[in-house]
Structures are given as structure tokens and as C-alpha cells.
Amino acid sequence: MVSLYRKEPDNSVLYVTITDRQQNLFGYPTLSVTSGRDFFMTREKHFTYADEAELQKALRGMIDRRIRKGYEVLYSYFREERYAALERKLRQYRAAAHE
What we know:
Strand order of the largest sheet: 4-3-2-1-5
Low-confidence stretches: none
Order of helices and strands: EEEEHEH
CATH topology: q64v53_bacfr protein fold
Mean pLDDT: 85
Largest sheet: 5 strands, antiparallel
Radius of gyration: 14 Å
Shape: globular
Structural class: alpha+beta
Helix content: 25-40%
Strand content: 25-35%
Number of domains: 1
CATH architecture: Single Sheet
CATH class: Mainly Beta
Number of strands: 5
Number of helices: 2
């Protein structure tokens, strides 16, 4: 789970949470992306991938695009070791944002 946020010029805040869900009904790896200006009015999209490698590549791309758009890491949690490289990268983003 990775939560990102970006403060807008009007002082509103955009939130995005990307979650690696269990496989979908047909056994494919799936990401859920929830976004909105507050935690009560959100929209959720689901993205399904052919395999785990494709999912991981897409996950890194989703995060990288948002970081380039000015989002910062609010929270991240990784239960398994398979995202170790992504965890290190998010720590780098956080460190760069607080320099």
C-alpha cells in the first residue's frame, strides 16, 4: 500500500492510494487505485495484469508519474519482501522531499 498526496494552490489536497490486492476472481494480479480530494469522496479503479512482473512494472510507473507531478509519499506499507526495491525508492523520494 502506498499513499501519496499533493497540495494544490487553493490549499486543497489530492490523495492517491495504490494497493496491491489479492489476485482477482480469475487469478490475475490486480492493483486498486483510490483517489480524491478527501477520504469520503473518492473514486476507485482496478488494473489487472497478466503476471507479477507486469504488475510491479506498472506499480513503479504509477508512483513515478505521480512523483513527477509533485506528489509526495504520505504513507507506505509492505507486508512482503517482494517490493524491497520499491521500498528503497520511496525512502529516497521522502528524503529528497525533505531536503
